[in-house]
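Known limitations

Structure tokens in this collection are predictions and should be treated as such. Users comparing against experimental data should check residue numbering before alignment. To illustrate the layout, the record for Aldehyde dehydrogenase domain-containing protein is reproduced below. The input appears on top and the generated tokens appear beneath it.
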Amino acid sequence: MSPAGSFQGADASDCAEAIASSSNAFRGWSQTSPLERRSLLLRLSRLLLQREDEAKRIIRAEIHCSEDWAARNVSDSVALIEETASLITSNTMSGSIPHTELKDSAVVAPIAAGNTAILKGSELSPRTHHFIAQLFVEAEFPPGVVNLILHRPEDAAEVVETLIKHPSIRKVNFTGSTTVGRIIAQMAGQALKPVLLELGGKNCSIILPDADTAKAAETILQGATLNGGQICMSTDLAIVSREVADDFKTELQQALSKKYGTSYKVISSNSATRSRTLSDDAVAKGSKVTSSFDSSEGHSNTQVVPILLIENVLPTMEFFSMESFGPMLGVVVVSDEDEAILMANASDYGLSASIWTKDHYRALGLARKLDVGAVHINASTVHDEATLPHGGNKASGFGRFGAEWGLREFVQTQTITLHP
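Generated tokens:
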């Protein structure tokens, strides 16, 4: 049940019907010309622009985000659809890969490459996913090119297993937690299906002695709290050189004071509980935690979480290794660059990182030592746009979304050898 009403939960028979529909549509859709696919995608982007206000209202109602974050989601979606449409008729699809930086999305990329797709929506945001699927209908994509499946939480295992094991499903694309990603990968492996996984992150910002600590503190705190910290690229840890640790902490406290009274309604009460548990563990093991509002005031809504700043995080604390997915930021103090790299790479995750220094050459050298998918210099770990590839290493998944790399994830290769 959503605030706007109820949605019918799918079962195995609904999955079979969706797969049959997409399989039938594939026969015709895979043979459409690149020009036709490009035209339909551009129509899709125009429709999304026309219905921007409606899309933002739905997003804000379901994931409790700010107006700015909802607007960014819509504008980024429009940009990636348009970029993908432009790639369809470029030499990306004909055999050579130019050195450009372009992007697609989980649904748009396979469709652009001539595949059909089943979008399995989340029960936490059904209206948002239904809105996306409906846009394809209104853009006049052929029936079955994009199908939507929604299900109850208790039916998730059956629905996912049914979809993955069906012989007509040729590839699995999952965005979500690392825990669920492992289950998806195991199922896909048993069925010998390739997977594209975009999972969690324990993203860090490294602050070197010559960094602009004021700018770094403000940007890093923003990267930790944007959308309540509920972004795969959110900054969890600030790894700061001991030489500037005191200055950085002072700047961070000043940045936090500007947000006093701020709190976020996170996606579920479980998310809020995780934030409180991680904070309590850090305090029990010696950390100082500063909140963006007086904890004695309390709050009646169990989904509301304040900004939590955790100083002097140690590897023994759960927060050091566990993705918070909430408005939390921890500070780790290190002696030198080698220790900073060691701390950053100690994580099981490997999605996004940033380095703060005035020396760009120094930053580039350090960036190559980080086992992550993307490194940003003097910028937030939260950075993704229509012109950038996106993906991680280790427990953050594998494969890439975006640009020609993303399109090639969904292009089936075939070798034909002729003998005289």
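For this record: Confidence is low (pLDDT under 50) at residues 92-102. The radius of gyration is 22 Å. Please report discrepancies through the issue tracker.
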